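wait is this the right file?? whatever heres the structure
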């Protein structure tokens, strides 16, 4: 389904929900539908970008671009299967795993770099300290950070930089995505996380990315918040509990 068709269908569903005053459970069902459409669209857009790069013949399918394409297709299948069961949105996170922050950030950046190159934006990822671990649903958290990156790449000014920083203190892990959008004119960040909220001239999305990021962070025991940098840009932060790593623990990269 084309982007504009998804956007129109989901947005209209949201309007009908508001106008008809249906109960909270039905409203959550509407948002679940929107989240599914939004995530599938993101994964398909990444797969298309990777395919277009491979089609030029300048890179091989066995390299990093082929890996991004494969990962996007596999993630799409997994998302469909799990969404059909509605496990994550009706009963909460069911498949937490332990993994290292550095490898996780590298994986997200590889896919987002294709989008950055297509938009003429520089994506900078600062080195992540070794040994920082998280306990979370990896796919949901990947969607959270990917949505923040997509939002930053979409709204940052042309030929600027989007920066990803990730680190930790004694008990928290912080993942920051900073853009150079010029800041919010009214200085308000609260409305950005409302479902179907869109700002700026680019209305190609559905308006669910930041709402999904907030839900995904909270479902994993964390939160997401934003800071406005007047005249410069915005910083979105995912704040998660840090996982102590016992000496004998098995932690995925």
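ok assuming it is, sequence goes like this
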């Amino acid at each position: 389904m084309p982007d504009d068709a998804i956007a129109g269908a989901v947005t209209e569903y949201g309007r009908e929900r508001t106008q008809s005053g249906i109960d909270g459970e039905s409203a959550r069902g509407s948002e679940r539908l929107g989240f599914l459409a939004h995530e599938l669209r993101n994964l398909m857009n990444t797969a298309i970008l990777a395919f277009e790069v491979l089609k030029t013949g300048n890179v091989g399918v066995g390299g990093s671009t082929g890996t991004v394409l494969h990962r996007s297709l596999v993630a799409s299948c997994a998302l469909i299967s799990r969404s059909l069961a509605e496990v994550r949105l009706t009963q909460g996170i069911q498949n937490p795993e332990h993994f290292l922050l550095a490898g996780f950030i590298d994986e997200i950046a590889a896919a987002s770099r294709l989008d950055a190159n297509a938009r003429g934006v520089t994506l900078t990822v600062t080195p992540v300290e070794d040994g920082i671990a998280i306990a979370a649903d990896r796919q949901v958290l990947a969607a959270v950070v990917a949505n923040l990156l997509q939002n930053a790449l979409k709204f940052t000014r042309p030929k600027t930089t989007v920066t990803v920083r990730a680190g930790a203190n004694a008990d928290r892990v912080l993942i920051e995505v900073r853009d150079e959008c010029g800041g919010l004119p009214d200085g308000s960040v609260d409305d950005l996380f409302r479902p179907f909220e869109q700002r700026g001239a680019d209305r190609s999305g559905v308006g669910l990315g930041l709402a999904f990021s907030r839900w995904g962070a909270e479902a994993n025991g964390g939160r997401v918040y934003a800071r406005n940098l007047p005249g410069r840009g915005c910083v979105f932060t995912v704040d998660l509990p840090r996982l102590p790593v016992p000496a004998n623990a098995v932690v995925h990269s």
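The longest strand covers residues 233-241. so i think its the right one actually
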